Amino acid sequence: MNKEKPIIAVCGKGGVGKTVLTALLSRVLIDEGHYPLLLLDADPAGGLYAAVGQRPEKTLASVREDLINHSRSANDSTKDRLAHELDYMVMAALLEFPRYSLLAMGRPKEKGCFCPANTLLREAIDLLAEPFAVVLIDAEAGLEQIQRQVTRRVTRVLAVSDGSSRSVETIGLIADLVGRARLSVVMNRGMVLNQSQLPSGVEITGVIPENAVLREFDRQGRPLWELPPDNPVWTATRNIVKKLFPKRRTQPAAKGSKKRTVNR
Ligand SMILES: Nc1ncnc2c1ncn2[C@@H]1O[C@H](COP(=O)(O)OP(=O)(O)OP(=O)(O)O)[C@@H](O)[C@H]1O
Ligand SMILES: [Mg+2]
């Protein structure tokens, strides 16, 4: 089941631009026909919803907590039933639109352990991925989520780097965890690395330029999906999508147009 369904996780050190990239990619994927798209906000701190112009009403963690609180006062048979209510939890937290659905993991209350978050993410993927053309995950900063349970299901990890040495270090760690074959690097804010700075066998899939308009949108909490169509970050994102989905033709070139001799 789902053998080759694209399940893409956007990972990297904190603050490198994971949420920005996820928001840009999701818009371009939908516009280019890669839908229905499942967008998973796996960062407990959230942020993806605002970037695409939505507000999460419920998160998987909050629905789960409600269920657990309910079950405290329930009798044993109800508890049993509630324990198997993951479907319900996922459905109650899922925000659905014709071309995409959103699900936020939220922040599980258990202290000092991210296991529940990872378990929830894994289960959400298993339960939900099937009818979607693509699954795109805005992962939590660092490496917690790209542990085995989750990564086994991910077909591509996009590691974002802002060129800082810490972000490059993180890419090295991610490469060790997920293997190089499934890893691509996206440089953000116009930074580019030498191939020698990257783990061997890992390639740079694209570069998102530093963009003052984007930064200002983000600062004001304006959805990045509303960035003007001529903003250069859209071209940069389309180039990344072309690399991720090389076989798919986007719009056919107009007759006589030579525009599609695109960078490889
Ligand atoms: N290409 C860019 N041009 C201008 N500003 C950018 C760009 N990319 C990201 N930023 C800004 O950098 C900050 C961090 O970006 P973002 O929130 O996407 O990072 P993140 O990796 O998701 O962070 P976190 O680890 O906290 O979730 C934001 O203020 C965002 O507006
Ligand atoms: Mg983020």
Topology of helices and strands:
Elements lengths: L6 E5 L6 H14 L5 E5 L6 H5 L7 H13 L3 H8 L2 H8 L1 E2 L3 E5 L10 H14 L5 E5 L9 H4 L4 E6 L3 H14 L4 E5 L15 E5 L4 H8 L12 H13 L20
Parallel strand pairs: 1-5, 1-6, 2-4, 2-5, 6-7, 7-8
Antiparallel strand pairs: 3-4
Could you name the key traits of this structure?
alpha/beta, binds adenosine-5'-triphosphate, 264 residues, Rossmann fold, binds magnesium ion, 8 strands, eight-stranded mixed β-sheet, 14% strand, disordered C terminus
What does this structure look like?
- By secondary structure, this protein is of the alpha/beta class.
- It has one domain: 3-Layer(aba) Sandwich (Rossmann fold).
- It is 38% helix and 14% strand.
- The protein has 10 helices and 8 strands.
- Helix 3 packs antiparallel against helix 4 and helix 3 packs across helix 5.
- The longest helix is centred in the N-terminal third of the chain and has 14 residues.
- The chain is globular and about 60 Å long.
